């Protein structure tokens, strides 16, 4: 083989090596582009999941009373004078049918809610919210609320103690649901208001209710929440629970001072 042939052969060998190097660089660049695209997709997916978690679980604007959400917090507790240890949370819900609103229409009831921290007395307005009151009275008389923890306290912007689900905010309700009644046009819920919690569905009223312990503006939820009564005694108990704060130091979650309903006694007020 002549020197000229050797040089030509070496040249062809170098060209092949150069071509392979170029291809490797192209492959690496393509892989980097794919990695960037995959990372971007993952960021979008994670952002979507986070957003869905925040909006889907609560289905009403942040921190508004919702019947489908149980904010998580640590298990820290606070001792409050006058409170005994709460009972164990029930493990099942007593389902039943929707009571006839005619049983409460035009009537006024007094409900004494006995808790592990004392009695809270409510006046129920069947004239303005007959279906809501009929439901609350029927659930009370069937011992539905017995042992139910008040599972949610909010302490910033919205000031409510939420109760009514025997399973502590994780239950699916008593087996029925109904629509809104007596919602304030201005979205104002004064201290002492008794109203129903719900999901974003306006027909999802069921068992969960909330007590407003300081004036609260819920005008961010145009449809509002059904007001069906007022607190006439024992507000100091709710205020003590609120003063103890939320478990773990949050502003929305289980109360640091556990409070549970032991029983509810309802009587009709005669004219």
Choose one word for the global shape. Answer: elongated
**Mean of residue pLDDT?**
84
* Main beta sheet: 9 strands, antiparallel
Rg, please?
A: 30 Å
Region (Disordered): 1-21, 58-77
GO molecular function: isomerase activity
Keywords: Isomerase, Membrane, Transmembrane, Transmembrane helix
Function: PPIases accelerate the folding of proteins. It catalyzes the cis-trans isomerization of proline imidic peptide bonds in oligopeptides.
Task: Kindly describe this structure.
The chain contains three helices and eleven strands, in the order H-E-E-H-E-E-E-E-E-E-E-H-E-E. The strands form two sheets. A nine-stranded antiparallel sheet has the order 10-3-4-7-6-9-2-1-11. Strands 5-8 form a two-stranded antiparallel ribbon. The model is unreliable at 40-63 (pLDDT under 50). 38% of the residues are buried. With 271 residues, the chain is of the alpha+beta class. It has two domains: 1-56; 101-269, Cyclophilin (Beta Barrel). It is elongated, with a radius of gyration of 30 Å. PPIases accelerate the folding of proteins. It catalyzes the cis-trans isomerization of proline imidic peptide bonds in oligopeptides. GO terms for molecular function: isomerase activity. The chain crosses the membrane at residues 34-52. InterPro entries: Cyclophilin-like_dom_sf (IPR029000), Cyclophilin-type_PPIase_dom (IPR002130), Cyclophilin_A-like (IPR044666). This is Peptidylprolyl isomerase.
